[in-house]
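Sequence only, no structure available. Ideas?
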Amino acid sequence: MEFAETDGSSLEETVNLRLRFPRAEAQLHLTWRASCRRNFGQIVGTQGTISINDDHLMLSRHDAAPVRYDFSEALSQGSQHLEWMKPVIEGFWQEVCDAGIRGANLDEARWCALLTSLAYQSYKEGSRPIPIIGQIS
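Reply:
I predicted one. Tokens follow.
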């Protein structure tokens, strides 16, 4: 993590995060220091790659031509996306109405809070890897 130096605050300006799984690894780089807002990413798997390029993604398989999927708006246009919000709200409402599925949203929120907490702990301990196993109830 790198923090803002100009205002003396403890706000992160850059974060590098690595999650290791038994058969995969995820790396995330976030920065708020860029001159413009863009969202890029790459997911590499055994059968190909998904490249996220702000307003579209490309699916590149080893055995086929690349396929482009355009978004209705660039990811950088805002942190809330209307086409994503409807299913989120519907899922939340289903949990309110159906006790049988209640808790999935809370479980996801707990997972996000745990990962955030462990990332801060790792930073405070010199970027030491922190195991997730045993931390999930």
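The longest strand covers residues 12-21.
Hope that gets you unstuck.
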